[in-house]
Amino acid sequence: MNIYNLLNKNITQQELLNYYNATIVYDYLPENINGLVFNYNNISTIVINKNLSYYKKRKTILHELAHIELNQLNQIDKDLFAFKVNNYEDDANLYIKKIMEDIK
Fold it and tell me: pLDDT-derived band of residue 35, with 50, 70 and 90 as boundaries?
């Protein structure tokens, strides 16, 4: 199970969330933050900004799922994580872009 299957409508969003032991929470976040994802006690929580449009919420969910799928939440060296944030963001965006290209 992966994002590719979700976008091809072979699985539902809930099935993918169950597979990754993940949940989505909608909350008010600062204007410049669309969403975030974190793992606590082996449960991944995706937080989506309530102020976003429907389309941006969907796009942000895919982006945060990409972080999970790319195993970016389980980085060993947490101290260096802050220096790699931009790389992780770029990697997640490129991953989704590649999947979208493969679907077309």
Answer: very high
- Structure confidence by residue, pLDDT tens digits, 76-90: 555 555 556 678 899
Residue 69: give its domain's CATH number: 3.30.2010
Cβ(37)–Cβ(66) below 8 Å: no
pTM of the model: 0.88
What's the domain count of the chain? 1
Judge whether 82 and 46 are in contact, CB under 8 Å: no
Which residues constitute the domain of residue 64? 3-103
